[in-house]
Amino acid sequence: MKYSFKIFISFLALCLVLLIMSSCLPGPNDLRGVPDEGGRVAGFWRGLWHGLLAPITFIISVFSQKVNFYEVHNNGFWYNLGFVLGAGLFLNGGLLGSRRARRARKKRI
After folding, report:
1. pLDDT above 70 covers what percent of the chain?
2. Reduced to 3 states, what is the DSSP secondary structure of residue 94?
3. How far is CA 64 from the centre of its chain?
4. Contact 74, 42 (CB under 8 A)
């Protein structure tokens, strides 16, 4: 009897965590594919650039209402792919991450 009660509580806690996490998911972007004031829609290359600048942009956006972290006037998949690749290059796998990995390998040798 005790064992099934623990399973029930665990299942209930898991459902609660999933509910809370799903409430944080982003909604649809109604401005996708819609040009901005200059008539531009951000694509892959602009997404890559914004991803590279993401850490700096985030810090500035905390203190300024005029700077956005993410371009909402984008073309969808390609902008998102560029943004993720750019952020990944800067933050983990590329510009900074590879240097750390090389240093760690040199120390092991």
Report:
1. 82
2. coil
3. 20
4. yes
Q: How many domains does the chain have?
A: 1
Residue type, 41: V
Three-class secondary structure assignment of 31-82: CCCCCCCCCCCECHHHHHHHHHCHHHHHHHHHHCCCCCCCCCCECCHHHHHH
Q: Which of 19, 30, 109, 14 is nearest to 76 (CA)?
A: 30
Q: Which domain holds residue 86?
A: 2-108
CA distances to 50, 63, 88, 104 from 97, in Å: 18, 27, 9, 11
Q: pTM score, two decimals?
A: 0.63
Cα torsion for 54, 94, 76, 63, to the nearest 10°? 0
Burial track 15-26 (b if 16+ CB lie within 10 A, e otherwise): eeeeeeeeeeee
pLDDT digits (tens, 9 = 90+) for 76-91: 899 999 999 988 887 6
